[in-house]
Model the fold of this input.
Amino acid sequence: MSWMDQIGSLLQQYSGAGVQAAPDQAEDHFDRFAQAAPNSAVADGLAAAFRSNDTPPFPQMISQLFGQSSGYQRAGLLGTLISAAGPTIVSQILSRHGASGLAGLLGGGQDVSPEVAQQVPPEAVQEIAEAAEQKDPSVVDMASNFYAQHPQLVKTLGAAALTIALAKIASAQQGR
Done:
């Protein structure tokens, strides 16, 4: 049984112009979807939510997710953002946020340790994400792929973002 067979009727509630699912069901539906669907489908939905005019801007959502993430998740996201924004920009932003001591640890071309990542303020991450998106818009897709591996964390974005993600996935499946 394919993942679409398992959750096709659930996604039908999110297809078309009139979303029929109640917002309070979005978390449960996203859970069911994330358990059955491949990470690529989850990532596509997240990218749609990150780019939607009906959700907060991408940098704000990334900062929110970062604030809820474990040290390992923070380190992974920072690595993604550094690769898109560049170590120089990241160092400048960290300095503005009073974290200049971390700049050398983050920008040296090495992996970011979870311990160092825990010290980076979410406000700095929002600014880093904004700079990364301006320099390389594909960072939205990279962050979507990263967080598709952590669906429990994605639920902290709220019902609007989850509904948009599920609607995007439903419309993509209808087009197949």
